[in-house]
Amino acid sequence: MRGMRYREAVAWLSLSSALVVGHLVGDVVWIGALLAANDLLSRAPWMAEPAEVGALARRVYQRLAQPALLLCLATGGVLFGLSPGSLLHARWFFAKMAFALALIVLHRLVGARAARIADGRTRGGAGSGLLAVLVLLCATGAIALEVTKSLPRL
């Protein structure tokens, strides 16, 4: 290290690695927020003030799930922009996109349910268990493809 500057000795993350990390952090926060909001919605009909529980679920959705989704879309878009040709020729990419689109639909369903319950319509929480299972399955599929296909083979 003698004669070498300190900043030259530090190996920084590459842009693509930093984007993958940001994308995965967005995934974790997004899915966690969707599951938390969904859990609140499933309990709302049995609470003393269901509309307040719905309002809390809506806040979790708006303050955590939506920004995390935007982070996922932004980092995913930049990653795609860096190498569109290689991703378009990878068969796994279309399966990952199918899982991601399904998650976006489920995201909208959770948000709509939160809005209904926050507005006082307590029957909007029916079917929350199935919704949670679908979110987990789609998230597992998307993240498994994202991680296994973005890492080099050892």
Provide tags for this entry.
6 helices; elongated; 0% strand; mainly alpha; single chain; 154 residues
In terms of topology, how is this protein built?
Layout lengths: L5 H4 L5 H29 L6 H33 L1 H5 L2 H28 L9 H23 L4
> Which parts are unreliable, with pLDDT below 50 for 5 consecutive residues or more?
none
Sheet/helix structural class? mainly alpha
Mean pLDDT: 86
Count of distinct strands: 0
Number of continuous helical runs = 6
Principal-axes shape call: elongated
Order of helices and strands: HHHHHH
Nearest-angstrom radius of gyration?
19 Å
Share in β-strands: under 5%
The major beta sheet can be summarized as: none
Q: What is the rounded distance between the termini?
A: 29 Å
- Tell me roughly what share of residues is in helical segments: over 70%
Return the domain count: 1
